[in-house]
Amino acid sequence: xxxxxxxxxxxxxxxxxxxxxxxxxxxxxxxxxxxxxxxxxxxxxxxxxxxxxxxxxxxxxxxxxx
Length: 66
Description:
Number of strands: 0
Helix content: 40-55%
Number of helices: 3
Structural class: mainly alpha
Number of domains: 1
């Protein structure tokens, strides 16, 4: 199994309630990079990129929008 395959298998859906997911996104915002292991999250439809997807989820959670 290649290193790329291993990283894809470790990806998960972003969970707004998971403090470690929020911390990883904060790291990305501050450093403009996900780190050595790459992005840990899966892209969900209808989004085109992961940072915008996460911003949308955080904003909706903060505003109480479902």
